[in-house]
Amino acid sequence: MARLCGDRVIRPAMLIVAHDETARSQLKERIAAVSPPGMEVLAATSGEEGLGMLYALREQNRPIELVIASQGMPGIPGGRFLEIVNAQFSGVGKILLSDKPSLDEAIYAFNNAGLDKYIPTPWDPEDVKFTITALLRQREMKKLNEKLLSDLQVRNQQLTAALGNLEQARNDLEHSYIQTVESLAVALEAKDRYTSGHSQRVARFARLIGRSMGLQNQDVEIIGQVALLHDIGKIGMLDKILNKPANLTPEEREAIKAHPVVGAQILAPVATFAKHVEGIKHHHEMYDGTGYPDRLKGTDIPLSARIVCLADAFDAMTSTRPYRVGLPLEFAMQEMKKMAGRQFCPDCVEAFIRVLKSKGVVEEEGTAPAPAADQPTALPAAGGTADQNSSQDAAAPLPPSELRTGT
Question: How many domains does the chain have?
């Protein structure tokens, strides 16, 4: 049990305190015989001498394993002596030997001295061996358990810190990946100077709607990202289709209509976009079930898709194009109300109109109402086909170039 301290061997110690010389010598001999190698067994004739030896051991940084004291000593009795030891030398094992054992004495010693054993004398030699060996083993196991617990706590702290770093790294990676894909979406729009900035505006409108509906900040952020990426499926389409000045062929129109599914397929393998895929895939569904790709209806359409569908159409309405001036805000709001329950989710329309009527909100988000057009134009479905680019009440469909922009 001895340990090294630099070049010096530190020996643990046990102390026997008994007034009777014969009893003290016999006890010291028996305990030394059963003690582990390296253990030093010391003896003192009184409590006062015993305390002096314990303080000396502590100054030498020597471990004190056990203190064994006889109750019937002049001066400081054994029980009181062990009380002092318990207060001054934490963690030391303590045994009280009594030649006149009593229950009250034992209870007092256990409660006040933190006693490990209370033993009537004479102490049988075999019992000495068993008691000392068992107590030392218990103390060794206790120390080992305390060390293991301490090591476990340190490891837990290290693991918690490592997990925190890992989580931060994962968040940073996800953020970087989302930014990269968003940059690709913005780059896609940059091909057409008339629709540049469309996805950013749709994202702003979508966040406005989400906040107005009382959604959590995390959900609003995801909806904004869905809006920014809603046309990412067009990234692989041919420029000759996206920029074709003439009417689209049926095959080209179907290719355009495939972009929500293509966008979902692009992002689906990436766990970062697990919460985005459904919103991107279904942002052309109509509330009455006449949209695409799956003709979902009502609240079967993901909320993020319902919000982006409305924000997308609003930007198409209010944005100015080479062939028309953007619609005024009041007219756009009337068109959204008219199409609530048909093209759009009524709850989303209500929330959007509420926030659009708020003073300064539209300007604050970077989009001001456009001047009135000479002729009222039908509300365009977001990225819709020709039959979707007019309300049931009105005007001619949008030109082929607008059909391909996704606005």
Answer: 2
Is residue 10 within 8 Å of 63, Cβ to Cβ? Answer: yes
CB 337 within 8 A of CB 353: yes
Residue 83 sits in the same domain as residue 216: no
Mark whether 199 and 135 lie in a shared domain.
no
Alpha carbons within 13 angstroms on the beta-carbon side of residue 227 total 32
3-state DSSP helix/strand/coil percent for the chain, to nearest 5? 55, 10, 35
d(CA 286, CA 71): 93
Q: Is 38 helix (H, G, I), strand (E, B) or coil?
A: coil
Confirm whether 297 is domain-assigned: yes
Residue 322's pLDDT is what?
63
Number of C-alpha atoms within 13 angstroms, CB side, residue 11?
Answer: 11
Q: Which domain covers residue 35, as residue numbers? A: 3-149
Same domain, 64 and 207: no
- Is residue 220 within 8 A of residue 271, CB to CB? The reply is no
In the beta sheet, which residues pair with residue 69?
17, 96
For residues 258 and 312, state if they share a domain. Answer: yes
For 273, phi then psi, to 5°, come to -105, 20
Alpha carbon distances (Å) from 319 to 61, 326, 371 = 83, 5, 10
Residue 278: inside a domain: yes
Report CA 368 to chain centroid distance, whole Å. 40
Active site residue 147: no
Residues 11-33 have pLDDT tens digits of 899 999 999 888 899 899 998 88
41 and 143 together in one domain: yes
Which one from 100, 117, 191, 234 is the annotated catalytic residue? 234
Assign residue 14 the CATH number of its domain: 3.40.50.2300
pLDDT in tens, 127-163: 888 888 888 888 888 888 888 888 888 888 888 888 8
Q: What residue type is assigned to position 60 of the chain?
A: Q
Q: Is 169 helix (H, G, I), strand (E, B) or coil?
A: helix
Residue 168 domain-assigned (yes or no): no
